[in-house]
Design goal:
alpha/beta, Quinone Oxidoreductase, Chain A, domain 1, Rossmann fold, 10 helices, 18 strands, about 25% helix, about 30% strand, globular
């Protein structure tokens, strides 16, 4: 099968054997994959990664022959936990110290013709959700995680800092929840997507000081956290979504003096994401920049890194 490999800042194609699923796991044929900022950071050296990337996908279960999932269209949670430790017992397998992570930590990713995942990680895609929307499930779940972690009420004023892929999804999810969202970004065409979704938007210039009770930092840059803290009121909350491969230098004085709560926020539950996808309230078609065949993965990664690019999709035989 064709498999994507990244190493030393380069994207290449390799031939690999079709994987054999372990007991309790499924063999999945990739239908659509999505390149996200984490994949790009891995390419740039995050985690010292080398191997097959990809964790945003929708696929079809094609094995084993006795699987109850056979023939179903699925998405999959990316954390593979041990199932036996204290964290797993508390329902927090995504923090299992022995976990592997699809396409990130010791588990080959989804950017290949076939992949494997435990059946316990799978979720069936509702019939009314097309592949090009279902592939957004994982980042939408990450956006929904904010509502599991914080008490953002309906009508709350929330700032989202960053108009990239995740920032746009976070803004839309919080707007659907009923928050009054203001998205700060640099790209008028991206801000228009959020505006059409019911968000207020501002082309980032000078950011307002101490204005919001909740600020979501999704800039994808090392200096975004400092900006988010400065925008947040005393005893407010900053939700941190950015992961970058370089160290983040931060003057903590403002966060300490203003008693700002910093909340790290990563993966989320797929159930609310799939419900939101089924409602068709999110503007996803406008977020798809380009689609490539799996065989064009180097070109797809190059396009995903271009200024202004949003979601780039890859499909086997596209």
């Amino acid at each position: 099968m064709i498999s994507v490999h990244i190493e030393n800042g380069a994207v290449s194609l390799r031939r690999a054997a079709v994987p054999r699923p372990k007991p309790g796991s499924a063999l999945i044929r990739l239908r659509t994959g999505g390149i996200c900022n984490t994949d790009i950071e891995l390419l740039r050296g995050y985690y010292g990664f080398r191997g097959r990337p990809g964790h945003e996908f929708v696929g079809e279960v094609v094995g084993p022959a006795n699987s109850a999932w056979l023939g179903k269209r699925v998405v999959g949670e990316i954390n593979l936990s041990c199932g036996a430790c204290e964290w797993c017992a508390r329902g927090l397998g995504r923090h299992c110290p022995a976990r592997t992570v699809l396409g990130i930590v010791r588990h080959p990713g989804a950017f290949a013709e076939f992949l494997t995942l435990p059946e316990s990680n799978l979720h069936e895609v509702p019939r009314q959700v097309p592949d090009e929307h279902a592939v957004f499930t994982e980042p939408i779940a990450a956006a929904c995680e904010i509502l599991d972690q914080t008490r953002i009420g309906k009508g709350s004023d929330v700032a989202v800092l960053g108009d990239g892929k995740l920032g746009l999804l976070v803004a839309q999810v919080l707007a659907c929840h009923g928050a009054r969202v203001r998205l700060y970004g640099h790209h008028p065409e991206k801000l228009r997507i959020a505006a059409r979704a019911g968000c207020e938007t501002t082309a980032s210039g000078k950011l307002p000081p101490s204005r919001f009770d909740f600020t979501v930092e999704a800039t994808g840059t090392a200096d975004g956290l400092g900006s988010a803290i400065s925008m947040t009121r005393p005893r407010g909350t900053v939700i941190m979504k950015t992961t970058v491969h370089e160290p983040v230098l931060l003057n903590t004085a403002q966060a300490v003096v203003n008693e700002i709560t910093l909340v790290g926020s990563r993966c989320g539950r797929f159930e609310p994401a799939l419900r939101l996808l089924s409602s068709k309230r999110l503007r996803l078609d406008e977020m798809i920049t380009a689609q490539y065949a799996l065989e064009q993965a180097p070109e797809a990664f190059a396009r995903a890194q271009e200024k202004g690019a949003l979601k780039v999709l890859i499909r086997p035989g596209a």
